[in-house]
Structure formats: structure tokens, C-alpha cells
Specification:
Layout: H1 2-11, E1 21-31, E2 36-39, E3 57-66, E4 71-78, E5 86-89, E6 108-110, E7 114-119, H2 120-137, H3 144-155, H4 158-161, E8 163-166, E9 176-180, E10 186-188, E11 190-194, E12 200-206
Antiparallel strand pairs: 1-3, 2-7, 3-4, 4-12, 5-11, 6-10, 7-9, 8-9, 11-12
């Protein structure tokens, strides 16, 4: 799988060394259960979490842009700094890598131009927030983007940075890391880097493949 080889070359070190990529430290994501979900939050309210159980707690998130276009090419969560021994395509419970042919991938569809990482518990909080807003506003409810995401992206510097951290429930630790996806709509895969003890050290979603 060529995508996997490219991810391995770009991200197996503790830094990305490629003149075509500009990297940014964005902050930390809080994963209360370690059951991580990657999806377009505006079109998928019931995305399944990845099979791998990730560590729980707060972890740094990096965003990597393609310099020429200034578009988001990769988004990365770092769980540890140890040496990465192996990379694998990230899959959910109902996905089997043996079913793929050639350069086929598993991933998630994007229709809104936005993707995200979040915990399974946080997805549940987002769904509850949407239901509460809908029941409260009725016919005046404009959709979860206008009612929730829009404020973060345009009032909290998101329109410039192309990303935002959001909390759908202030009483819970979990947050959402949402961001623009590559050139927009598409179908995007995620990859996991494992250490020698088979523990996940990195989780990366690829939106623009940049050769190493």
C-alpha cells in the first residue's frame, strides 16, 4: 500500500522533514475513554470508533499544511515519543483490511469540507447538544454548524488557522478537534504508528498525499 509507505517515511520521526509541508502545534485533545473517532461531524453522527484502544487523557495535536496551497494535508495526534516500528491503516470494528484490493482504503467521507478527531464519549455529547438545541429552537434551529461550530471557526481565530477546539459539554473533559480537510470534499484514511510493545504512538489522517 503506497499510502502506508509514504506515511511511514514522513511521520516515523518526532518531526516532519519535508520542504513541501509546514507544521503547526495546535493544542491538546482530551480523550476520556481512548475510543477515538475520525469523521465529518456535520454528516456523520454515529461514526464507529477505531478498533485500537488509544491511551486516555490529553495529547498534543499537530496540523500539517501543504505549503503551496496552504491547505490541511495531515492531522496528527501524538500519544508517545518512542520509536515507531510499524504503521497500519486504522479500521473500525466492521472493517477488514483483507477485503481491500490494490490501493483501496478504509476511511471516512467528507461533504462539509470539515473533519475532526474526538472521543466516543464526546460524539455522544455532540449528539445530545444537537438534540437539545433542536428541541429548544424548533423551526428556528439552523443546524449544528450554524448553532455550534460557526462561532468557534469565525470568532476564535478559526477562519485564519483552519482549525478549532470545541467542547460540546462544558461539564465533561472531552473536546473536539475540528479542521478543514485538504481541498474539501473527499474520502480520507487514517493511519496508526505502533511502538515495539504494540502500543499506539501516533494517529494520522491524510487529506493530501505529499511525496516524501
Amino acid at each position: 500500500m503506497q499510502h502506508l509507505e509514504n506515511i511511514k517515511k514522513l511521520f516515523s520521526k518526532n518531526f516532519v522533514e519535508n520542504p513541501l509541508i509546514e507544521s503547526f502545534d495546535t493544542g491538546t485533545i482530551n480523550l476520556p475513554t481512548g475510543r477515538v473517532i475520525a469523521c465529518d461531524p456535520l454528516i456523520t453522527s454515529d461514526m464507529k470508533e477505531f478498533k485500537i484502544n488509544f491511551p486516555q487523557g490529553e495529547f498534543p495535536v499537530l496540523l500539517h499544511k501543504e505549503r503551496e496551497s496552504n491547505c490541511v494535508a495531515y492531522v496528527e495526534i501524538i500519544f508517545g515519543e518512542k520509536e515507531i516500528i510499524e504503521w497500519k491503516l486504522a479500521t473500525t470494528e466492521d472493517q477488514n483490511i483483507d477485503d481491500l484490493k490494490g490501493e483501496e482504503i478504509f476511511g471516512y467521507p467528507v461533504e462539509s469540507g470539515m473533519g475532526c478527531f474526538m472521543d466516543f464519549e464526546t460524539q455522544d455529547s455532540l449528539n445530545h447538544l444537537e438534540k437539545r438545541l433542536f428541541h429548544r429552537k424548533g423551526a428556528e434551529f439552523m443546524g449544528i454548524y450554524e448553532e455550534f461550530f460557526h462561532e468557534y471557526f469565525f470568532d476564535h481565530n478559526g477562519a485564519i488557522d483552519q482549525f478549532a477546539f470545541l467542547k460540546p459539554d462544558e461539564e465533561k473533559k472531552g473536546n473536539i478537534f475540528a479542521f478543514e480537510t485538504g481541498y474539501g470534499e473527499g474520502f480520507y484514511a487514517s493511519y496508526i504508528g505502533f511502538g515495539k510493545d504494540n502500543q499506539p504512538l501516533k494517529l494520522i489522517t491524510e487529506f493530501i498525499e505529499i511525496g516524501s
